[in-house]
Design goal:
Order of helices and strands: HHHEEHEHHHHHEHEHEEEH
Largest sheet: 3 strands, antiparallel
Strand content: 15-25%
Number of helices: 12
Oligomer: single chain
């Protein structure tokens, strides 16, 4: 979808992507641990690590209870000899070069394969502990300190946005972008979001990558280009890394065979729309023609 298109009426089908859905209320912690199978021991290490820190323990319980419904969609080319290969779009000058390379792969017998890799069954204790500790490092920032703990768990703590492969960039994002807002003058999530989003508007562009594979956050970040969904995945993880409570909102455009994604930032119990490329809170709402949330 092109964000510069004029408005076309659409049927709104929106969800907030965090680490929780209505169905997740039916999953108990024990069910989540059982679902993990052999990886259960890794998840239990997280509880042991935080046994003397009640708040981080609650955060760990939140993540692990919700993990069974979350997975990474990993896509790759498979050669006729059975070797996996993922083109690095950063190594190509533009989408046409990427597309030409992918066409050559298909001509040589490569096929696109994909797997869903469930978080509960694969994520290790060190990853989860690192994610929780980093999230708590920014929890006391002026723009985040008044956010209720439940909202912190839903919109800052999560390590993923949708079904993108799990990223290890949280610390890198925090170290690079936190200084932009850590001046003591930012005291609410909207202002923090505007500053970070202004920087992302300089670094990112809405552009077809030429690759048919579902991208990683790393590839989107290093190439600086991607679809609206790709850019939202990146921006959401990046903003959460600096303590901004954000999520992704989705809709279906019924008159076109397309969907669209954009970001929302939570402030005083309300969500304000923004685009990682084209719009700040709350100017993007007018472009989307959305009712107030």
């Amino acid at each position: 979808m092109n964000d510069h298109e004029t408005y076309i009426p659409f049927f709104v089908f929106c969800i907030l992507i965090s680490c929780s859905t209505p169905h997740q209320k039916k999953i108990s912690l024990e069910q989540a641990l059982s679902f993990a199978g052999e990886n259960r021991i890794e998840l239990e290490k997280v509880f042991e690590h935080y046994k003397n820190d009640s708040l981080k323990l609650k955060a760990a319980e939140y993540l692990i209870t919700n993990m069974p419904l979350h997975f990474s969609r990993v896509e790759y080319y498979l050669s006729p000899e059975g070797k996996q290969y993922i083109p690095d779009i950063v190594c190509f000058p533009d989408k046409d070069a990427v597309k030409k390379h992918c066409d050559s792969l298909r001509n040589r017998g490569y096929t696109i394969q994909g797997n869903n890799i469930y978080d509960s069954k694969t994520l290790k204790s060190d990853f989860l502990i690192r994610n929780i500790d980093l999230a708590f490092l920014v929890r006391e920032k002026s723009w985040a300190k008044d956010i209720p703990f439940e909202d912190f768990c839903r919109y800052i703590l999560p390590y993923r946005t949708q079904v993108e492969p799990v990223s290890n960039m949280r610390r890198e994002f925090m170290e690079k972008y936190l200084p932009l807002i850590d001046s003591g003058k930012v005291n609410n999530a909207i202002d923090a979001c505007k500053i970070i989003n202004s920087q992302l508007m300089k670094e990112l562009v809405y552009k077809d990558t030429g690759s048919p594979l579902y991208p990683t956050v790393e590839s989107t970040y290093h190439s600086g280009r991607g679809s609206c969904e790709d850019l939202c995945n990146l921006a959401t993880l990046l903003m959460r890394a600096v303590g901004i409570p954000v999520a992704v909102q989705l809709t279906t455009w019924t008159k076109m065979d397309l969907a669209h994604s954009w970001g929302v930032v939570l402030h005083d119990g309300k969500f304000y729309n923004f685009s990682p490329v084209y719009g700040q809170p709350d100017t993007y709402r007018e472009k989307l023609k959305l009712p107030a949330i």
